[in-house]
Amino acid sequence: RNYYGGNWASFSFSGLLSWIKENQQKTDINDECEDWRKLILENEEVISLSKKNTTIQHIEDFCFGDQDSAEDVEEAGALRRLPVFGASGAEEVAQESEKECLPVESALPEAESQEPEKATDTEPASAVEGKDKEATSENESSHSTALGESALELGKTEAAPSEISAQEPKKITYSQIVREGRRFNIDLVSKLLYSRGLLIDLLIKSNVSRYAEFKNATRILAFREGKVEQVPCSRADVFNSRQLTMVEKRMLMKFLTFCLDYEQHPDEYQDYENNTFAQFLSTRKLTPSLQHFILHSIAMVSETHCSTLEGLQATKKFLQCLGRYGNTPFLFPLYGQGEIPQCFCRLCAVFGGIYCLRHSVQCLVVDKESGRCKAVVDHFGQRISANYFIVEDSYLSESICTNVCYRQISRAVLITDQSVLNTDAEQQVSILTVPPVDLGKPAVCIIELCSSTMTCMKDTYLVHLTCPSTKTAREDLEPVVQKLFNLNTEKETENEELEKPRVLWAVYFNMRDSSGIDKNSYDGLPSNVYVCSGPDPALGNDCAVKQAETIFREMFPTEDFCPPPPNPEDIIYDEDEIAPEETGFSNSPETKPESSSEESSSRDSTAVKKEDEE
Length: 614
What we know:
By secondary structure, this protein is an alpha+beta fold. 30% of the residues lie in helices and 17% in strands. It contains 19 helices and 21 strands. The strands form five sheets. It has an eight-stranded mixed beta sheet, with helices on both faces. Strands 5-4-8-11-7 form a five-stranded antiparallel beta sheet, with helices on both faces. A four-stranded antiparallel beta sheet has the order 2-12-13-14, with no helix packed on it. The longest helix is centred in the middle third of the chain and has 15 residues, at 246-260.
């Protein structure tokens, strides 16, 4: 691939269109070196890897944006026909607009122009980090957050109020989306970080948090009786809520207090351990609206498949995460979830790790006697030896995965012109769970991101929908989209539709869920080859962190997993191992090794300039 993170990646708008086109075409990777088999010895055998990515299926993208202004479309270099956009036509528009339009940053204040610079990925991590923080603090960080060693610091600057009222959203055309395409950072997988989750703890412990900033999820929403409502979470929210009566407030607080230490009161739930959590809630003297809030917006569990204990554990986890960094349990990384893999890659690069893009592997080389993997052969015909090999599930061929049964995740990404619940504060990050219409169907998790998360352009919202698949992504998710959003492109629409946010662009796709598969399910894998899964459908990131730590401990049982890195000033490099003139490192006391390392890993001449200045 030519991007970081695999199925965890984030894309600009034009980058996403290219990704859509690539996956719709499903082209095989051609072997650039035909004589690589000459590298295999007589006592060796090969395990061929997959030549195509089959983890993404049923991609459908649509443009609902306003096409009235022909001048706008011409300016963007667009084709004049834009009723329903396929990736190929839209991609041409995106590519042309990047060539013909003036640079976005030239027309924006300095703080706002930092995001497009960051997207080019041509600066050292330290410089990017500094610019990210400057952009966020000066521009739109009313709730932005930076992870520290033991706490997160909330930005104090309030976001500037929008000139357009919530009742009259500004008209956004497709050509505007294309021109501002670098303002978008669209995640393939939609997740949030629990404030006391494993990933937050790991980011703080490993100090990878220095490379990222975060924004609080500002509200939890519920969809009930055809309306979107805000759910009170904290004690203050509960008692300030106008939706609940005084009796309901007391009921809710009493039940949530019980959930925090439910283990101390086994007599209250033991009789219901074999029941669903929904059935248990119905016995707790809670009104229907409270049961709905707890089930779908606090515990966020299935009505039919979640046991009482699982529901109590989920509720307790939610409550324990409240108040650490804000009124909700969740954080979202600025510039998208795809920043997280890149942050770990940055720290890895500081200590000599190499991440190769556009570098495919033909096969694993296995010793016939020991049964262990000795090397890989890449598409250049180069043989690379190692003691351990970690491979993502999607690279394994069908012959290895014959006994593996995969699940699927249904995903949709929408660009809309307003929020699903308009309030006085426009810069909101919201999470909404829509209950299933039919019993047995999965609930749909919706995360709505505003422009201050640096994932979409001003006056738009980026909406992610996720659920376990039962059919194609469009069949699973379009009914929910139709309930909450206006898909009508005609000028004459009913009043009810006018009140809904208008969808400007949408994409649906199914993603393979390879989480939870035992290694023994794969046929013929050597003992020193470890398989990691792609993204799982859960809201948090605990599955990925547990999997990474498990693989690490199997390889290095006596080592600490992701220990805190030393301070840059404490690092002493061996002059015999590292030649400054080759790597850009300098061992002079005036230079910090860490920043120099980042400079050497960047794809520009910053390190050379720094040496010249010294």
